Amino acid sequence: MEPTDDDRRVPARYEPGEGCLTTAVRLPIRIVVLVLVMPVRLVWDALTALGRAVHRTALRPLGHGLTWVWRTLVVIPVAWVWRTLVVIPVAWTWRTLVVIPVAWAWRTLVVAPLGWLWRYVLAPVGRGIAWLMRGLGVALLWLGKALLVWPWVALWRYVLAPVGRGIGVVLAWLVRYLVVAPARWLYAEVLTPVGRGIAWVARGLGVVVVTLVRWIVVVPLVALWRSVLRPVGRALVAVVTVVGREVGAAFGHCWRVAGIISRAVGRFLGTVLRWVFVEPVRWVYRTVLTPLGHGIRNGIWRPVRQALRTARETVRQTRQELRRALFGAPGKP
Known about the structure:
- The structure is a single chain.
- The chain is an all-alpha fold.
- The protein has helices at about 5-10, 20-325.
- The longest helix has about 300 residues, at about 20-325.
- The two termini are about 70 Å apart.
């Protein structure tokens, strides 16, 4: 596994002028984190390499083989049987024995009689009924207007509306001089002076309360915040920030160091496995199995294929000679 840019990158140098707290916290944290991270990184790299090897050498070829077997032995035969022996015969039988007779019977026994009945009986009767109902509706509408609407319209226009307008004028005059004018005088001469006095008293009380709250509550709290809480909070934030930054940097640094160690161990084990297992197998394949396979191919398989091809050609020529002797030469097209 090739090292990435993050693994190659050297941790950034710290800026000069750091305090003694940072220097005292950094080394113990890095030692503890390296002890905790190193086994995890070794196990992680080993599992990753094992998973890739299993996927490349076993799972992928097995999946391709199972897919080919399933398609060749199941999908293609079932599709051929379904198309050839099920779908086409059933569709032809259904169309011939059911669909065509039912369609003919439906057109002849249902659609044609219903069309004739609608065209020559129901449509004329319906048009006559509609004409009668339209005339009856017009007559009833005119009669309803004459008996119900027009008398009420005349009553409203010539009696109720003038009476209502007169009553409205009288009520408006009474409300203006009996309600609005006294209420306006009461607001201007009584309620406004009283409200101004109450507002002046409330303003004075508000100033007194605000002053008391300021000197009793706000000023001591501000002094406590400026003199005690803010310095203590800044100190705590500085300590937490330094510890958190050093822990994060230690984790990143130790993870990269563990990766370098893990890759070194992996390269060593890979070299050992290569010279113990892979190179002997490769030498046996190249020195023994390849010449043996070439000898089998050139000495056995090719002569057998040539003999089979010659026998097939001989059988074909013999069949043509027998057909020509029995039935004569084929005529020209």
